[in-house]
Design a protein that fits this description.
236 residues; alpha/beta; Rossmann fold; seven-stranded parallel β-sheet; 7 strands; 31% helix; P-loop_NTPase
């Protein structure tokens, strides 16, 4: 079984792209399933189930969703193997833009949309910078010039990635993308012992542990202060 990790900002079109890609994979008799990771709520699992795609979802709740992902990915892989999948896709939203769920030697796909803003590629961080493939969506509602400028911004952030335009509504580009998943050459039996491509957030502070009170006396652990630059003015 092969494993592919999908991530991208909320509403970038990840689920639509995955659905169209799985349809293309079925034309090649490749059985794919999905595990959807989210924070508080999602009903995307119903969309997959409606197309008879094996699916599970996990909600992180009060936990960091990326920590939740890495704490459960081995169990998810074993679920996919029991289902007899040829390809398991994990889908997660990059909620903090600080980290990514990508694993070394496991194909990583970032989905980003043309409407997210011209500076978004610089804001996303490792989720975009360390992806193998970047899929740009919603190109049908911007001009050709805007598509090219946005793609150039993506390329500037991640020059090594394969960058493709794909339409989550019509499926245009999905078949070509599906051929890059290359399931015949991979057989992931376990991810135990593998490493993440990027470390998870290093912060461990009193607010991570449930503190609600505001004030310096309640701030413990890894605390970083904003530099306002007006200390000299206060001393005058």
């Amino acid at each position: 079984m092969n494993l592919v990790t999908f991530s991208g900002p909320p509403s970038s079109g990840k689920t639509a792209v995955i659905l169209k890609t799985i349809r293309a994979l079925r034309e090649r008799n490749i059985k794919a399933g999905v595990v959807k990771f989210d924070c508080l709520y999602t009903d995307d699992d119903k969309l997959y189930a409606r197309e008879d795609i094996p699916v599970k979802k996990g909600l992180a709740g009060s936990l960091c969703p990326d920590h939740y992902f890495v704490s459960n990915i081995e169990e998810v892989v074993q679920w996919g193997r029991k289902k007899g999948l040829d390809l398991l896709i994990t889908e997660s939203a990059g909620l903090c833009n600080r980290c990514s769920p990508y694993i070394k030697d496991i194909k990583a796909v970032c989905v980003i949309d043309n409407l997210s803003g011209i500076n978004t590629p610089r804001k996303i961080g490792p989720m975009l910078k360390t992806a193998d493939i970047v899929l740009i969506t919603k190109g049908d509602i911007v001009s050709q010039a805007e598509r090219e400028v946005f793609a150039s911004r993506v390329r500037a952030v991640n020059p090594d990635a394969v960058i493709m335009h794909i339409n989550g509504l019509t499926g245009q580009g999905a078949y070509e993308f599906s051929t890059l998943l290359d399931t015949e050459k991979e057989d992931i039996k376990t991810v135990s012992g593998k490493r993440l491509r990027f470390s998870m957030p290093s912060a461990m502070c009193s607010y991570c542990l449930g503190e609600k009170r505001i004030g310096e006396e309640h701030q413990l652990g890894n605390v970083k202060k904003i530099e306002l630059g007006d200390e000299d003015e206060e001393q005058k």
